[in-house]
Specification:
Layout: H1 5-15, E1 22-23, H2 25-52, H3 78-100, E2 113-114, H4 116-143, H5 157-167, H6 175-185
Parallel strand pairs: 1-2
Helix pairs in contact: 1-3, 2-4, 3-4
Length: 186
């Protein structure tokens, strides 16, 4: 495979008119369990918070622990993002397989059922991205709490070259000037 340019072009052509993808039965049942477990987790979160504290304004400040069940699902849109990732992974893998097997042409269509394995890959990828986002948010938040590191002022390349030329003992020859004179002779 020399380039994926054609693969992406065929992906575009096959989705130009719109394609509907569905989850396999296994993937659909796992997705339903994922949505239900997230709903139960939210119920527990709010109930636990209301039992411990009468202050109802800070309900959203409580963090949800990352477990194997919820895989760092922290907002209601996370399940939708997992579906979108599953579709993207499915489409890309189907088209890359067809490209590698050299069966991809303008009439080739990808399978329209997303497998359980693809949904699980999307959940793991989303989990990884959510953790990275959390780490980034924590580091940004910690910037306000820690004194900034002072960096040494960096002089520009032009200033360093000028300083080196001024401090040198020998004659200075400008390449630009000699090039300009030579180019007029031509």
């Amino acid at each position: 495979m020399e380039s994926v340019k054609d693969t992406f072009y065929y992906m575009y052509l096959s989705h130009k008119e719109g394609v509907e993808y569905t989850l396999s039965e296994d993937a659909q049942s796992e997705y339903d369990r994922m949505v239900d477990s997230y709903a139960e987790l939210l119920d527990e979160k709010y109930q636990m918070h209301l039992d411990e504290d009468e202050n109802k304004e800070n309900v959203n400040d409580m963090d949800i622990a990352c477990t194997q069940t919820n895989l760092c699902m922290s907002t209601s849109k996370d399940t939708i993002h997992v579906l979108r990732l599953a579709a993207a992974i499915h489409i890309l893998s189907e088209f890359l397989k067809a490209t590698l097997m050299k069966v991809l042409d303008s009439n080739w269509k990808a399978e329209d059922v997303i497998s359980l394995a693809c949904l699980r890959r999307a959940r793991l990828l989303y989990s990884c991205l959510a953790r990275q986002k959390s780490i980034f948010a924590q580091s940004v938040q910690s910037i306000n709490q820690v004194d900034c590191v002072r960096l040494k002022k960096v002089t520009s390349f032009r200033t360093r070259v000028t300083r080196a030329v001024v401090l040198s003992r020998g004659p200075v020859i400008t390449i630009y000037g000699s090039y300009k004179e030579n180019s007029m002779d031509l």
